[in-house]
Every structure is written in C-alpha cells, then in structure tokens.
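Request:
Um, any thoughts?
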Amino acid sequence: MRGTTLLDDKGVETGRLPAEAFAGELEVPKQELTRILHRITTDDVTYVFDDSISALTQHGSGVTVEFERGAAREFDMVIGADGVHSKVRQLAFGPCAGALRHLGLSGAGFSTANHLGLERGGLLQQGPGAALYLFGSGAPDRLTVSFSFATASPALDRRGRDEQENAVRAAFACFGGQAPRLLEAMSEADDFYFSSACQVHLDRWSYGRIALVGDAGYCAAPTSGMGTSQALIGTRALAGNLASAAGDHMAAFAAYEERLRPYVTGNQAAGRQAATMFGGDAGLTGS
C-alpha cells in the first residue's frame, strides 16, 4: 500500500496517512494465504469439511471428539483455532463470562468494481460514529470496501443479511462522497460479510489436553491489523514448544503462553486504540 487519503463525511479531503498506518512491507490477501496453507499441508493433514465439533471429553491419554455429522474420533490433543466465536473454547472452557469483549464497533465488508481506479491506495472517510474505508490492492479491477460504525454489542453478527445491511444504511445515511454509490453496491455483492470488533481475554489458553491459538484464545480485533499474523506467530510458538517438550504437553502449553502473552497484550492495546478511528470505543464492553 502507498498511503490513505482522509476525507470528511461529505467526501472532502482533509489529510493523508502513510502506508505504514494500515499495511506492512508485504501484504498477502487472506484467500491466497488460505490456498497456500492448504496446498503445503494437504499431503500430511486430513481435512474434514461441512462438519462441526459438538462435544469434547478429556481422558488420561487423549480427547474424545464428537461431531455433528461424522463419527466420534480420538485425538492426543485438540487445538482450537476456530476464531473469535470458537466452539472449542465454549466446550472446553465453559461460558467464560466476559471473555468476549466488544469494542463498540461493527461493520460490513465486500468487494466491488474499482470505479475509482485505486492502485495500492486507500480512502478513509470519517464521520460521527462511523467510517468508510476503501482500497485497491491485488486485482486492479476490484475495490475492497469496509463500512464500520458504532454499536452497543455484537448482536448484529447473529442477524440476517437484510437486517445487517439496513443497519449499515442507517449509520451512513448522512454520508456524501462515495458512500451512496457503495451502499448500493453492497446489496449486489456476492462476498458480503458482517462482523463486530471484539477481543478475547482469557486467564489461560489451555485446559488439560486442549489449547487455543489465534483469535479463539486471544483475538486482538480486526482493528489491530494483526489477526492472521498473530495467529500464525502463535501457531509457530505452540508447535515449537510442543516439539521441544519431549511429550510433556502441559509444559509446552505453559511455555507457549508465557512466551506469547506479552506480544498479544501489545496487539490488543493497539486494537483498542485503532477502534476509535473507525467509530468504535477504546473501552472494553463484555458481550
């Protein structure tokens, strides 16, 4: 990315941010990274699609995992890497009241035709309690769009697309510039998604033979810009400690957490601070 132009809610330019504000030296689109990881592991890993874990039962030598569709299976350990709303975390750690904390921000994302001709550049349009961020990267004919706005809870994450789109339109009804055109494009997008900026705060990231990695255990919120990077770094740290622990998974889990927690704490602080730029609240609210 080369930089981001700042606009007010009417679409008038007010300033510019350097590339470092939203990007690193190398940016890899998430869908491409997923393809790469799948390709280099497919010969050694069994992938099961269209199923979900329904129960976890630990015993002396492993974990019995029950699935919604497939037959139950036995594993030495279970590593939950299933995102901010982790099913593994719910099953292994219980309700964990206050673990999921909302940053006062929700938003919709999608891609559309790059009618602005943006090339490795972005536009950030800000108004009271809302922000529109759009940028061109990767495919030159596509524009990535993100509508973010203040919310009291992540409840909209569990609603249907129509209700989510209506909430976005209401939040940006007074915006000028590119906003009206992009609100129209939102309804036509086939890659629409909606999510809230949340963090996960746990006193520990493992329980017996079950451990958490990435957003499942310590989400820093999308506003941190460290979701995928933090997950990959956490995975490497966990794997390294397991490899050197001579079969002592408890020692490996403890070393993994001790090594990574300061790094995660810093990323979560950055995520809270950045949430204010997109219309959110830097404070933490339990979901």
